[in-house]
From TrEMBL:
Name of one Pfam family that matches: PP2C_2
Signal peptide: none
Full protein name: Protein phosphatase
Annotated organism of origin: Clostridium punense
Protein keywords: Hydrolase
Domain PPM-type phosphatase, residue spans: 4-238
Length: 248
């Protein structure tokens, strides 16, 4: 039985095109889960996010047995960046396109998370929601240097400005996090279409209530609260089974 609990991507209420892409691959003790939130004119964001996700999945399939987990993710980020950047250079209508990229790689009960941009990874441990990733965004920088408070960050006019993306430059640096899965019951990946509308408390409440339907319920709640952006969610199992009794 695989780790995947739920995977959803939705247009949202306001957009005419879904520029998010989600994907996953599972093979025995190896699993990779990916969320990408594309940006660019016309359909370029959709192109960028799909290239990035496909690049990651292909890279993991090829290299999961010959590289360390962090080497796999570093290589996957580099490959995705190279492929998106190259496509944008060769196709004028996609010039300047890019995408966020957040992925969770599980192998032999170990978890490594990588991110570029402001799509996020959360884990649930002992009934608490913990944010693993740190946004590459203007608002995060303002928070870090004390210019604004956490309360001001919630509705900041520039909250969607990201400071790092895949494919916009010839190279990009990802951030990498190693997580002990033993005390983790659930892992959540999401685009900012979810977190811009739904609070962390609401995410935890829905996940704790019924894990099996939580990805769909999170998307629905985001749309009920405005749903201005595309919304993507992936939820999968950790190693701690305390909360698995909700899975039906």
């Amino acid at each position: 039985m695989g780790r995947l609990i739920g995977i959803e991507t939705d247009l949202g209420n306001k957009r005419t095109l879904n520029e998010d892409t989600v994907g996953y691959y599972e093979d025995g003790d190896t699993s990779i889960f990916v969320v990408a939130d594309g940006m660019g004119g016309h359909n370029a964001g959709e192109v960028a996010s799909k290239i990035a996700v496909d690049s990651v999945l292909d890279y993991v399939k090829i290299h999961s047995k010959d590289l360390t987990m962090e080497q796999v993710l570093e290589g996957a980020v580099d490959e995705a960046n190279k492929n998106v950047y190259k496509y944008a250079v060769l196709n004028e209508n996609c010039s300047g396109m890019g995408t966020t990229l957040t992925m969770a790689y599980v192998k032999n009960n170990s978890l490594v998370v990588a991110n570029v941009g402001d799509s996020r990874c959360y884990v649930v441990s002992k009934g608490q929601l913990i944010k693993v990733t740190k946004d590459h965004s203007l608002v995060q920088e303002l928070l870090d240097n004390g210019t604004i408070s956490a309360e001001e960050a919630v509705n900041h006019p520039n909250k969607n400005v990201i400071t790092r993306a895949v494919g916009t430059k010839i190279s990009v640096k990802g951030d990498y996090y190693t997580v002990d899965l033993q005390n983790i019951s659930i892992v959540i990946l999401c685009s900012d279409g979810l977190t811009n509308e739904v609070t962390e408390e609401e995410i935890l409440t829905i996940v704790n209530d019924d894990i099996s339907n939580s990805s769909r319920r999170l998307v629905e709640l985001s749309k009920e609260k405005g749903g201005k952006d595309n919304i993507s969610v992936i939820i999968f199992k950790g190693e701690c089974t305390d909360d698995w009794n909700h899975i039906r």
